[in-house]
Specification:
homodimer, mainly alpha, Arc Repressor Mutant, subunit A, Tetracycline Repressor, domain 2, 11 helices, DNA-binding
Chain lengths: 228, 228
DNA sequence: GCAATAGGCGACAACGCTGTTTATTAAACC
DNA sequence: GGTTTAATAAACAGCGTTGTCGCCTATTGC
């Protein structure tokens, strides 16, 4: 009955996955900064040296986790990546999409935050699949007649995602139990949709602001970003 | 020429301030998690024991810094707290306010994030002066005829602040120099105002979403939060 | 089968932070 | 003056993390 710490069967892929899974668990619990390679290795039931072999540094481990989150986000919000490419912007159900984003954020608050921070700090956000699709579809939508004129899709995407991924922090601090959390998620989604439809200020009451915001002579004109 | 590490004149208030200042510097540089009491004490030129005397733990130091940020935010966005109480919601210049918020966020990205996280995670946000005024004025505004109907001020406040304080992360990663950063700050403020005025989707094109969002029979009805 | 490869393991040394405690100094206050 | 107390210095034990070894051995590929 000598419990030899039996050596894990030599399977790099699987080992890497165990480590990643442990990393996810800890990241989801303690957030991006309360995590160490040692801890992860311990939880994964893997030698620390082994963990170092797969992920040279903590940063790379976090990056890898963020990539995983991006995929899950994609799946949860847009569905199967294989079938998404064919979908046209016009047929997307915005309310559904908002709900799914809000729900996923509520279910994985820390992981989403990790992903968001990685993305925002990245010099090349276009490399991220979820961002690519989210911002991209927003841009495509902005070009349609269904969208308000002069939308800055990139900024709007950041605003939406920032709200969606920080709201859970508030929600967790204020919700007593699971049902309340569901309600708060819904409340966010509702306000998000309401804001998208009507804004928060009546334009008639703010002629000067309206003038400032109007970028071109005609409502549908493209807004200029690169003007010095 | 013996450089005795000359003892700091006995002035608790001043010492506390030196420590806080050092904490701010480090927080602004490394963010909330890359900070230690030792480091702060060292930078402040204060004995570690002294630092521990003023702030028992790292958390309390961060909390104290967040409080300071709240005050500065208030000053930068709303102006002198003494004269604010008298101002009526109708006479607030929203564009000015948005610009000031955006600028302050761009100038103090990490500090703002520290504050925001503290606030969101706090069970009693109402204790924070800036949040009190920001969310409060939004609520008061929402009650006027100048606002769109059915605004959920609390959610909207979180969305706005989350956007304002996370946008700088994106901006820093993409701006080459100071002028570009100014431009990006402006771009955020513009989109923020545009969104507030017009939303992003034409309501006529989304009748079902509009129906979902319409909470009451009449447009001005109060939305129900506490319905089970 | 057998050897080589490399995945996985255990141990080492070094570092930094945390808290807490002691004793000492010196400024400030009455 | 004498008391109070902020500030300093020094040391402690304890913890967790970081890197970096060399060894072991199961798996793979011949």
């Amino acid at each position: 009955m000598v419990e030899r710490a039996k050596r894990r069967p030599r399977d790099p892929e699987a080992t890497r996955e165990v480590i990643l899974e442990a990393a996810r668990t800890l990241l989801a619990k303690d957030g991006p900064e309360g995590i160490s390679l040692s801890e992860v290795a311990h939880l994964a039931g893997v030698n620390r040296g082994t963990a170092y072999q797969h992920f040279e540094t903590r940063e790379k481990l976090i990056k890898a986790t963020a990539d995983w989150v991006s995929d899950k986000l994609f799946l949860a919000v847009f569905g199967d990546p294989a079938t998404v490419g064919e979908r046209r912007v016009e047929e997307v159900d915005v309310a559904e999409l908002t709900d799914r984003l809000s729900d996923f954020a509520m279910d994985n608050p820390e992981l989403c935050r990790v992903w968001l921070m990685q993305l925002l700090a990245s010099p090349d956000p276009g490399a991220d699949p979820f961002w690519r699709e989210y911002c991209g579809s927003l841009e495509r939508f902005a070009a349609t007649e269904m969208a308000a004129p002069d939308v800055d899709a990139e900024v709007l995407a950041v605003i939406n995602l920032a709200g969606a991924f920080l709201w859970p922090v508030w929600a967790r601090a204020h919700a007593e139990g699971a049902p309340q959390r569901v309600q708060l998620a819904r409340r966010f989604a509702d306000e998000c949709l309401r804001l998208s439809l009507y804004g928060s200020m009546r334009p008639e009451a703010f002629p000067d602001v309206a003038e400032r915001v109007a970028k071109g002579p005609r409502p549908m004109s493209r807004r200029g970003r690169a003007d010095s």
